[in-house]
Specification:
Largest sheet of chain A: 4 strands, parallel
Structural class of chain A: alpha/beta
Order of helices and strands of chain A: HHHEEHEHEHEHEH
CATH architecture of the largest domain in chain A: 3-Layer(aba) Sandwich
CATH class of the largest domain in chain A: Alpha Beta
Distance between the termini of chain A: 64 Å
Strand content of chain A: 5-15%
Radius of gyration of chain A: 20 Å
Shape of chain A: elongated
Number of strands of chain A: 6
Largest interface: A-B, 46 and 46 residues
Oligomer: homodimer
Chain lengths: 195, 195
């Protein structure tokens, strides 16, 4: 017997964070009633994004082109690189419009608990960028968690050997908070007061 | 400039009930990290469901085939039809496995506020099924709201002329429910229907 298309869709949709089995059922019924206005465009947008969007080979940002829009932009300051854990943090910073340099996405933090060491992060590429592109300042915009600050410390040690100024986000980031959840005003203030 | 694929996907996903703009962003990042395991299968399942799933011309249920699996099943009792507002209610009843007849999906209730009259509901088809298929019992499984009960009353009047038994779901204490939290109306109904 063929797998039921609806059950399959509900099961997959229920794995999306923010939706469980029950809300996935509701969502599928909602989508089925809006087949042409929402369901088909959403399916196509998802397919297109899955096929076209790749990680930028320069900074790790997600974009349909490589290098990404930020790395390609000639208006962006090539002197400063802002190091973030994840693309969501990069988006949060971009929404503030407070930073005019470029980014570097680590893809996580060092974590003893999760067994994530330096070699699992996008670190070698960062060191190479700093060395080869005459970067003057690296801003470490990492979460104010233990893992985030350990990672910041590790990167700062690694980079100061290359004669680059390493700064961190100012106090204002709540201890234990995640960047992605921060409001834009706090994020802007923290960026401006970096030291 | 081309529309950014990620922004488009976030915008569409944020319109799914249960997800807002912020959780849509998180969901997209989560999906992008699970491109092959989740994102592509989900896009394809959504496309397939949107293309293949149609309302059953017999009962209004959603299925890839017409008539739907319930209407096609020779094991189901053709003597009784359970009338529900929506496909979600049909699914809820199917999960109980307590009903062995067939269904009829109205597509809503009568509503003076929303301006929904009898002609907007899948009612003519129900009357025809009752008349032509020798149906013995019609169970009205409609919500215990004012609109739901108005609709049940309207359908009961319409159908008794065709010599069919019309029943409704019993009102009472939900199984596992605490008396203390029950509203007065339900408690009164449960008391009156004691056995």
């Amino acid at each position: 017997m063929a797998v039921n298309e609806i059950d399959k869709l509900i099961q997959l949709l229920g794995r999306v964070p923010g939706l469980g089995p029950r809300s996935a059922r509701r969502a599928v019924l909602y989508l089925m009633k809006r087949r042409d206005q929402l369901m088909l465009p959403l399916a196509q947008a998802m397919q297109a994004a899955a096929e076209k969007i790749r990680a930028c080979s320069e900074c790790g940002n997600l974009d349909a082109q490589d290098p990404c829009a930020v790395c390609r932009d000639p208006e962006r300051d090539r002197q400063s690189i802002c190091v973030v854990e994840d693309v969501g943090d990069l988006w949060a910073l971009e929404r503030t419009s407070a930073f005019k340099g470029r980014y570097h996405v680590l893809g996580g933090t060092l974590s003893a608990l999760d067994g994530r060491g330096p070699e699992q992060l996008n670190l070698d590429r960062l060191v190479r960028r700093v060395r080869e592109q005459g970067v003057g300042e690296v801003i470490l915009a990492l979460s104010a968690t233990v893992d985030g600050q350990t990672t910041a410390h590790y990167i700062a040690e690694k980079l100061t050997a290359h004669g680059v100024t390493v700064t961190r986000l100012a106090h204002g980031v709540p201890v234990g908070g995640e960047l992605d959840y921060l409001d834009d005003g706090t994020l802007t203030a923290a960026l401006n007061a970096r030291k």
